[in-house]
Amino acid sequence: MEKSVARLLTTGNPKWLLGYSVAVGMLGVVVSAWGAGRDIDISLFVGALFCGLSFLVLISIRIERIVGKTRTAALKSSERAAVAQAMPLVYDRFDLSFPVPTLDEWTLEPGGLLLLHRLIEGEDPSVIVELGSGASTPVLAHLAEKQDRRFTSIENDDSWVEVTRQRLSGWDIEPDHILHHVPLADNPFQPSAPWYDTDGLDDIFGDETIDLIFVDGPAARHGTHRRQPAFTYFASRMSPGGILVLDDYNREDEQEVVDFWKQEMPEIEVSTFSGRKSLAVVRMPE
Ligand SMILES: C[S@@+](CC[C@H](N)C(=O)[O-])C[C@H]1O[C@@H](n2cnc3c(N)ncnc32)[C@H](O)[C@@H]1O
Hints:
Blueprint lengths: L1 H10 L2 H25 L2 H54 L15 H14 L3 E5 L4 H11 L3 E6 L2 H13 L8 E3 L2 E2 L9 E2 L1 H8 L4 E6 L13 H6 L3 E10 L4 H13 L4 E5 L5 E5 L3
Parallel strand pairs: 1-2, 1-6, 2-3, 6-7
Antiparallel strand pairs: 4-5, 7-9, 8-9
The structure holds S-adenosylmethionine.
The site of S-adenosylmethionine (SAM) has 15 residues, from loops.
């Protein structure tokens, strides 16, 4: 609760602020009108003060939006340059001959792909799982196919399944054994957000042991702590020393999710890799 209030105050919510300031402005008008009808001078002053405050807040919201947009656009162009610089290394390490789908705010950064490559090379996982498909899927599927590892990607959004399916086909990778549509559903682990339907996951994974899981879904719009169930569901299915990689660790929500995982199993080891998005690498006990 304390954290939610802090988050509201620090990130602000322009819609609420807009509502409050319009309400204060209207209160000012009512106070002025009420006082004018009764010849109470102070009420005119108080009313004008309320209207003035409301006006100032509305103007500052407008300025913040304009400045915010400019700042985001500037960041995006520098990010694009960073991605362009790192891509040759990604093509080289993964030995890619097809064009990688554009990396954007939805996808892993090149640094994230390179980290996954390092983990796959260093840890030699036989079974790799991805929650949340995208540009990462053909890249990881290509590596897995080349190195004879089993790779499974889970996607909740049926229209996005189609996008990823076509990308895999475009890379000459047969999508059917790799990509699975598992819709979101209420889950027993985390009431604040839906998660992948566990019956669907049970059908896919059965009693398979997983060595490395890349947690990059469900998307943020699906609610608070939406990636928390990944650990609760998969922990007992991981091999000893298996690895979970969580993207977007720069977000407070994902940091709280990892804190929760640590409470669930204090023996896990967590390392973090910072970048614009940041990743957490969680190693299961041996
Ligand atoms: C963070 S994305 C997964 C990204 C993917 N692992 C990657 O690195 O490219 C999480 C979810 O957002 C949705 N998604 C991915 N890319 C999207 C896009 N460009 N537009 C809208 N939704 C997208 C999909 O449902 C996906 O499962």
